[in-house]
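Q: What structure does this chain adopt?
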Amino acid sequence: MIVRFLIFTLALLAFIAWSEKSSDTYRYIPNYVWGPGEKITYRAHYGFITAGTGEMIIHDDIYEFNGRKCYKLEIIGKSGGLFEFVMHIEDYWGTYFDVESIIPHYFYRNLQEGRYRKWETTDFNHETDTATVITFDKVTKKIGTLEKFAVPDNAQDMVGGYYYLRLLDFSKFTKGDTIIVDSFFDDTSYNFKILYLGKEKLNTAIGKINSIILQPIMPKNKLFDGENSITVWISDDINKVPLKARANMFIGAVEIEITEYTAGKRKQRPVKFWE
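A:
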């Protein structure tokens, strides 16, 4: 559950709209925030007890899906410390994410949590605004179920959605504002709200960093205790790096904190010499 919370929190989300569109109408969103080679490492813990580790990675290579250039974004969560003796966890969540339009073309998750197994992929068709979800048999690895769903225009997945969120201009928000984003995950579209709670300087393993505080309003679920159960800190700079997350869960309070950060090769913002 701890590593699943880590992945869920770091991969916040973003999408909205409707209607079919042609292949020449892909939006363009400039990205000067993150790029290939970025790697962020985290520690999840109950108090002083380490429960697991996590990594957010943007792979160096550029891939091609549906005739579009894509980044490969991946989140890896593993159990650790004393928690490893209770349950072995090794989860992989990834997406192939359009370089220019910042939308996913192919999402996957491969989960191993104790005896629990799940291997699932989602193919996004942005021409028809549909997603095909394939679940594989946990033993034979053959296709178990295949379902197609209608999704919002520019729909994203749980991994890519957070990277989209990092591109938002938070200077436009004031304390108490609500950021509304939509999402598609598993078999359902979600309307997701995030409260902007202001700023503070945060002590981390990589130094004192000016941060932005966000609080997702959680839907009723069996994992988190209340709609305001999660608080997230991201760096208040061009990188918008996720620094820390704190959650009140039914099993107790859990924290995730950054331990290492390696910047990627991001595009340089063009200089307007006439300004």
